[in-house]
Predict the 3D structure of the following.
Amino acid sequence: MSAAISVQGRRIRSPWISGVLPAVGLLALLMPACDHASAPPTTTESEPAPALLDVTQDERVDAERVSAMRLVVSDASAPAVATSRLDPPATVAPSQPALDIDVEFEPELEPEDEPLPSDREPLELRTAKQHLTVRIAPDHRAPIRARIASGEAFEVFERVQGRGCSVGGWADVGNGGFVCLSRTRPATQAPRMMPVARQGVLPFYFARNRLDQPARRWKSMRSYLRGDQPTMVYELGRDYAFTSRRREGGQIVLTDKRGRIMLERDLDRMRPSRFEGRDLVAEPVPEGEQLAWTVDWPRTAIHAAADPEAKSIATLDYHLEIFVRPEPLRTASGTWFELTGGGFVRARDIRRLQPVEPLADDEVTADELWIDVDLDQQVLTVVRGQTPIFTTLISSGLKGPTPRGVFRINKKEAFGSMTSSPGASEAYAVEAVPYVQYFHEGIALHSAYWHDRFGFKISHGCVNLSPRDAAHVYSLTGPHASKGWMEVFEDEGDLGTRVRVHEGREVVADRRGPVVYVEG
């Protein structure tokens, strides 16, 4: 039986509140993995921020430390080197350093606009000296609301009384969160939304070992410039995340979060897809027409008639938006659709935005935002009330099924690591997957910078989005992260956005449960 109290004007309902707030453990939320689950370790009010690490034969570390957010997450699709927009989706294309061009800045993608600021004016700004735990009440035993990254600034709206923070005291940091200030200092810079974009909307530059080619790594820039002997590193299927990319000593060098140096010429650098969905408010679909995307690589053939033997009158680029008549034409050669501008295209060569059926209940308000995922067409649509406002292509589960049903996003991470399950035939380890939104056990919506096959099922169960689309959807959904927050869990005052996953017109079960609070 749960009880409710008011904390700083917010109603909080939780079994933790029952009785006299006994120090009992709550159910821990198991976050991970499209392949296997791993429980998150417990945390303290302030602890050192784990660095992005990688594992080699010579440098073994505890698996929990591999995760940027102290969570080992198995997921998604085994990464494959991303191609340019029109390169073969299944082809690995090594990148070569271009030493005759300026590589200091490479704005491949446009960043999302930041969310609107809080209605309240902050009392002060603080910076986390260590990784901080944000709790749902000013009590060190209260469930976790969020985590703030070391070195990140955050807003303080009020100093409050609480328990278990003798130095510094507790602060109301807004958005239903409270932080012990013992491991903080006055901020010298403004808070920022996480993740901080370095490569367009992405927070890192990504690269991986070339097949059967170990790469050199120096422990620091000074060591590299001195000409010290490097360590040779190699692990097939591992993606490295780097915080900077620049020219030093006549080479393009990549620097990771620990300050270690690798040469781009030794690696295959990932080049994220430029694909992005359609804003249906700014660009509505014309009445009587149906939005579709071409998915046959490298180009989709348009025929003069609904017959593969008919003359090809045009070819269209991969991932191009088109409009077709909604009614299919079924012939002996298969199903076709007529383009509104003339010509016919095979149904298998396109993906279509089908009419989005309303949620099967009366709870949806006119301004409630929810997500529809159509596995049949590999299309995700963001809906407000009953009005679609954004739509795009996805890649769902092939090597593992994407669960069907109505869910709720229960946790969001600015970025987190993902690994294959032990003994998997297709081993992979990704240091930092951006824009992760868990909605069922270890299944999440997240960006996939390693492929451009949106519109096809290829993942281990998660829902892959292009980097641009992942950033956009992440900015819209709940639970909502404040500036400086690396991850956020839903609570009764900030429920996660509903996600409906279905195949075509099938009716799926409501699989939402109560809010599960995270201890630590």
Q: What stands out?
A: The CA atoms of residues 4 and 13 lie 4 Å apart. DSSP finds three helices and 38 strands in the chain. Helices lie at 63-66, 221-226, 467-476. The first strand starts at residue 3 and ends at 7.
